[in-house]
Amino acid sequence: MSLIPVTILTGFLGSGKTTLLNRILQERHGHRIAVIENEFGEAGIDNDLLVQEEGEQIVEMNNGCICCTVRGDLIRILGELHAKKQSGLLNFDRVVIETTGLADPAPVAQTFFVDEGISSQYLLDAVVTMVDAKHAAQQLDAHHEAQEQVGFADRILITKTDVAEPEAVEALRQRLVRINPRARIGEARHGQATVDDLLDIRGFNLNAILEIEPDFLTNVEHEHDDDVTSFVFRETRPLDLNRIEDFLGAIVQVYGPQLMRYKGVLHIQGVERRVVFQGVHMLMGTDLGTPWKPGESRESRFVFIGRNLPKEILIEGLAQCTADALAAQPGA
Ligand SMILES: Nc1nc2c(ncn2[C@@H]2O[C@H](COP(=O)(O)OP(=O)(O)OP(=O)(O)O)[C@@H](O)[C@H]2O)c(=O)[nH]1
């Protein structure tokens, strides 16, 4: 049985999430999307399904914030949606969860890994984060939730570029890349984005390409002291698989709460395919990726995104995981 892909749509208060969703839902794209809408301040948890005209799209309303008090509700609602799909009562092939503007996306994302019932029915496709070009600079300065949402993103969509100065938009773009070089940045002015900007991003697919904005490494300006930061590790020497597994396993045990998102495509000694590691906090997965082509220059690339990252420890530790560093050790 195939798993139902889920997109988490997040972004700070007023960043344009609903505007985008409304546009996407009106588009004729052939996808049947069930929407789970999480909002503060509704009178009680409204479990009625608001099925739209064609009987395709559904909205669920919750009370409270999806990332804390109502996570149990999210699990229950996803279970109910699945049961209704199975019995033919509802017809949808994907789910979009719109979080409240203050939600931390991590617990929502983790639901799809830790809850056995949910992970046997659904597959997390990506976290998409909307960023308001007019207000994001101030929001990122003042609210750690805004930084978390950017840090977790697999795709970032900048809104309100029509009312922001182009220089401010460019400065924001550079800041977003510094916080999260992994997520591709697009634009959604007045919700103008295509369904491809939202669906099938495969951010949580282990075989997906590791995208790192090319200007990330050349960008040296650091005007903002964001708590959520990132860094990229690159190494052309092959890594030792056992060593790197042990090292990363230990790192997530100690620093898991700070590590928001990490993903690496690695060149491993004796392995003719890419080895892909990725995770959210303490949940880490590993898998074989595509084969290296004959003559292709092989390089390991790892990106870590998180709060107060132990950068030196990570760099030093990873450097000890090369096959030649291991061979040079006494007794090796
Ligand atoms: N000028 C301009 N306004 C926009 C744009 N996108 C959204 N808006 C407006 O911004 C306001 C907030 O948009 P919403 O889509 O409700 O934002 P939201 O993220 O769903 O908001 P919350 O649910 O409160 O977190 C609305 O008045 C939108 O019309 C844009 O690209 N440009």
From TrEMBL:
Domain of life, per lineage: Bacteria
Gene Ontology molecular-function annotations: hydrolase activity; nucleotide binding
Domain called CobW C-terminal: residue spans: 228-322
UniProt entry tagged with the keyword Membrane: no
GO cellular component terms given for this protein: cytoplasm
Pfam family, any one: CobW_C
Matching InterPro entries: CobW-likC_sf, CobW-like_C, CobW/HypB/UreG_nucleotide-bd, P-loop_NTPase, Zinc-reg_GTPase_activator
Catalytic reactions on record: GTP + H2O = GDP + phosphate + H(+)
Alphabetical UniProt keywords: Chaperone, Hydrolase, Nucleotide-binding
Keyword Ribonucleoprotein: no
Function: Zinc chaperone that directly transfers zinc cofactor to target proteins, thereby activating them. Zinc is transferred from the CXCC motif in the GTPase domain to the zinc binding site in target proteins in a process requiring GTP hydrolysis.
Family: Belongs to the SIMIBI class G3E GTPase family. ZNG1 subfamily.
Protein known as: GTP-binding protein
Organism this protein belongs to: Paenacidovorax monticola
